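Changelog note: in this version the structure field was regenerated for every chain. One regenerated record is shown below for reference.
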Amino acid sequence: MSLGYIGSLTLRLEMPWVSNLKEKRALVRPVVERLKARFPVTVARLDGLDAHDWEIIGVVTVSNDHQWVEETLQLAADFVVAQGEYRVTSEERGIVPIEDVMD
């Protein structure tokens, strides 16, 4: 039995019609903020910060219940897909026991 689980989700958002960083931030930032407010997760803008047409965001959560971590990541992914004026072109998830990270 594990002490707990850390779940991670990375999403690549693409918006090829966007022509500048200000416009991209106006699309991505509200979704990131709403995601943090709605779910028990930590969210970060990870890559593509200087690109105007794509960005990668990361979502992390932790719990002692593996199923809860899975469900939370799924709900977060569905929320991001439904919220923005962008395309989610890739999605990666991982769940690891806390003990694997502490070694």
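Spot check on this record: The longest strand covers residues 87-97. The chain has one domain: 5-95.
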